[in-house]
Amino acid sequence: MKMNDVINEVSDNFGISPEQRKLANLGRVLMDAATTTQDDALSNTMAKVGNELTNYGALFGPKNPKELVAKSGVSMEVIKKLLAYADKLHKSQSALQTDHDDSGLDDTDNDNDDFNAPDDVDDAKAADQAARAKRD
């Protein structure tokens, strides 16, 4: 059995639908973004909504949007804006991760040879040979 099979088997045991998983991920993004937000009221709102999104569909979590509004104390319009913001952040983080995995954040050098610069050992050998040639 491969590691991915084990991880997928464990994650399927929680009975989370793909929609609930997406909402939970967006909730985590919101909570992470709340830590760097300067406005305390907005930060608290993002953290509350993010927390409730991570529990969406869970035993004591909100089961529908109406319960989400009631448990978070935030209007549906604000929740929609926060979800759009979290989705935008998540997509930009995913794009950065993909870019980093692809070839780093430097897009000018897309070849696979990251070590094509001269080596210090080669430079030292060339310097030694030049010094010997001058001496002789």
Give a quick summary of the entry:
The protein has 136 residues and is mainly α. It is built from six helices and no strands.
In terms of topology, how is this protein built?
Blueprint: H1 3-12, H2 18-34, H3 40-54, H4 65-72, H5 76-103, H6 120-135
Helix pairs in contact: 2-3, 2-5
The whole-angstrom Rg is 26 Å
Biggest sheet features:
none
Counting DSSP H or I runs of 4 or more residues, the number of helices is 6
Straight-line N-to-C gap: 66 Å
Mean pLDDT equals: 81
- One letter per element, helices H and strands E, the order comes to HHHHHH
Cα shape: elongated
Helix content: 55-70%
Strand content: under 5%
The beta-strand count equals 0
| Poorly predicted runs of 5 or more residues | none
